[in-house]
């Protein structure tokens, strides 16, 4: 079987039928318009940090690995909106939380 293994079997993007309905029912309350409006200032805050980071890196004249930068931005937004934890991985890539999430 070439399908996903382990916990990835439970991902909503890969779930089917009843499993998809179950996972969607659990996640839907998180993404109401009211909840998203509450999250927007956090997303905007990290967007500003992202822009400053990109400008700072561009001034160095070296290539920027966008996968790493956008991964850090995503981690910052997700940890802050989901768990209330400010990791600031864009400016602190050696943070223990960041290091432990790398595969």
UniProtKB/TrEMBL annotation:
Catalytic activities: an organic molecule + reduced [NADPH--hemoprotein reductase] + O2 = an alcohol + oxidized [NADPH--hemoprotein reductase] + H2O + H(+)
Cofactor(s) needed for function: heme
UniProt keyword Protease, yes or no: no
One Pfam family cited in the UniProt record for this chain: p450
Annotated EC: 1.14.14.-
Source superkingdom: Eukaryota
Location within or outside the cell: Endoplasmic reticulum membrane; Microsome membrane
SUPFAM superfamilies documented for this protein: Cytochrome P450
A single cellular component GO annotation: endoplasmic reticulum membrane
Bilayer disposition of the protein: Peripheral membrane protein
GO terms (BP aspect): oxidative demethylation; steroid metabolic process
Alphabetized UniProt keyword annotations: Endoplasmic reticulum, Heme, Iron, Membrane, Metal-binding, Microsome, Monooxygenase, Oxidoreductase
Any one GO MF annotation of this record: iron ion binding
Family membership noted in the UniProt record: Belongs to the cytochrome P450 family.
Its biological purpose: Cytochromes P450 are a group of heme-thiolate monooxygenases. In liver microsomes, this enzyme is involved in an NADPH-dependent electron transport pathway. It oxidizes a variety of structurally unrelated compounds, including steroids, fatty acids, and xenobiotics.
PANTHER family: CYTOCHROME P450 3A-RELATED, CYTOCHROME P450 FAMILY 3
Name this polypeptide is given: Cytochrome P450 3A
Organism per entry: Neotoma lepida
